[in-house]
Write a structure and sequence with these properties.
Largest sheet: 8 strands, mixed
Strand order of the largest sheet: 1-4-3-2-5-6-8-7
CATH topology of the largest domain: Rossmann fold
Number of strands: 8
CATH class of the largest domain: Alpha Beta
Shape: globular
CATH architecture of the largest domain: 3-Layer(aba) Sandwich
Oligomer: single chain
Number of helices: 17
CATH superfamily of the largest domain: Vaccinia Virus protein VP39
Order of helices and strands: EHHHEHEHHEHEHHHHHHHHEHEHE
Radius of gyration: 21 Å
Length: 421
């Protein structure tokens, strides 16, 4: 099996995990699910209240198109898999190309803080679960020669842009096309029985939508451009924003807008959308939302359509549904002393990140606060800073889109029951 071995002379590979309709015997990594983001908002618990609230929307979605999901929302029929494509050196990631694709350049958020967080981790592999253009990965590789990077992304354009890392850091980079809720399967395939030589010493999530995705009109993420409604991070997926906007009923749409966008006027907007169907472009949707919101409310909080576009994007990509279980799996992958760092960009994401890290910090303790634990819970991580970090004033000046970012991080404990510092 190909793997990230200790020998740095091993060729670096890029792999595309694609979608198929049947499961190939012996496949180690299953395919992506078929349906696998304006402002810097999210990219990716079964017991999550968010997942529970969106079940009605899910029912309407499934009636139109059954698809599978991994761990951010079991709403779609599971498709099979085949072995990933393997190649040595540079690989051209092929996928559906759209007119107007611009060069994928993304300014990484809080890159200095993230580089410092991973400085003390053991020698091994850092999984960049949301690779994007590779800005964070490049900084980590340049600053820390004791780590290698396993980069994961579902966006073919992002992987193509990040592929320059292969030549710049020979033998230290492997890129895989996959959604991040498969990170444990990807890690097993590319590390597997060689974990002793290549332990997972870090996992990084940058959940924000990238600037190139916002700035390429044909991707359909932005209310600032008039383009077809799309919003798919994985352009091979079948569910699009157009389907959500034009097939969900009023109740289902309102649930999506309320749960994923914290939209105060969710029902009014949903009614306006349904009444105006078909809605085919981002410009039409933005205008409908603006007209549905009372005039006094339009003058506050940025563009009136911001929350609606965020909510629809999250629904299309199953972002919040898959996040909790993925965070749990990432913590489980870490060796003692390994670290997990998560950048989130809106309250829905941050609540999930805070909750899962808190669950790992306490081990799920159910004892009353302030009293000694007698339930037998054992913590698995220590938080590196309660409340996390936010961008510096200097970064906000250089990159205004980082304004809503919050970075949380934790370190895997080596001894069960160790006290959090």
């Amino acid at each position: 099996m190909h793997h990230l071995a200790a020998d740095h002379n091993q060729p670096t590979r890029t792999t595309d995990i694609t979608t198929d309709t049947q499961t190939a015997p012996g496949s180690l990594i299953r395919s992506l699910s078929a349906g696998t983001m304006e402002g810097p908002y999210s990219a990716r618990f079964p017991s999550s209240s968010i997942g529970e609230k969106s079940r009605r929307a899910t029912a309407g979605r499934e009636a139109a198109d059954e698809r599978s999901t991994r761990c951010h929302g079991p709403h779609r029929r599971e498709r099979g898999a085949r072995h990933p494509r393997r190649a040595s050196g540079h690989h051209d990631f092929e996928g559906p190309q759209m007119a107007g694709d611009a060069e994928f350049k993304h300014l990484p958020v809080m890159v200095g803080e993230i580089t410092r967080l991973f400085e003390p981790v053991p020698a091994g592999v850092v999984i960049d679960a949301t690779l994007g253009g590779g800005g964070h990965a490049r900084a980590l590789l340049a600053a820390h020669p004791h780590v290698r990077v396993l980069g994961i992304d579902q966006d073919d354009a992002a992987l193509a842009a990040a592929s320059s890392l292969i030549d710049d850091f020979p033998g230290r980079v492997t890129l895989v096309r996959s959604r991040f809720d498969r990170l444990d399967e990807v890690a097993d395939e590319y590390v597997g029985e060689h974990a002793a030589d290549a332990p997972i010493s870090g996992v990084l999530f940058d959940l924000g939508v990238s600037s190139p995705q916002l700035d390429q009109p044909d991707r359909g993420f932005s209310y600032r451009h008039d383009a077809p409604l799309d919003m798919r991070m994985d352009r091979s997926a079948s569910l699009t924003a157009a389907e959500v906007v034009n097939t969900y009923d009023v109740a289902d749409l309102a649930v999506v807008l309320r749960d994923f966008g914290d939209e105060r006027f969710a029902t009014r907007i949903a009614r306006a959308i349904v009444a105006a169907r078909p809605v085919t472009t981002t410009g039409e949707l933005a205008e409908l939302v603006r007209d549905a919101i009372p005039a006094p409310a339009r003058r506050r909080g940025g563009h009136p359509a911001k929350r609606t576009f965020q909510a629809v994007r999250i629904e299309v990509n199953r972002e919040l549904a898959i996040l909790p279980a993925t965070l749990d799996r990432a913590i489980d992958l870490l060796v003692p002393g390994g670290r997990i760092a998560v950048l989130s960009y809106h309250s829905g994401e941050d609540r999930i990140v805070k909750g899962r890290l808190r669950q790992a910090e306490t081990g799920g303790c159910v004892c009353p606060p302030g009293l000694p634990c007698v339930c037998g819970a054992e913590p698995t991580v220590r938080l590196l800073k309660r409340g996390g970090w936010t961008p510096s004033p200097a970064e906000l000046m250089d990159n205004p889109r980082s304004e809503s970012a919050r970075l949380r991080a934790a370190e895997r404990l080596s001894v069960p029951g160790s006290v959090v510092s």
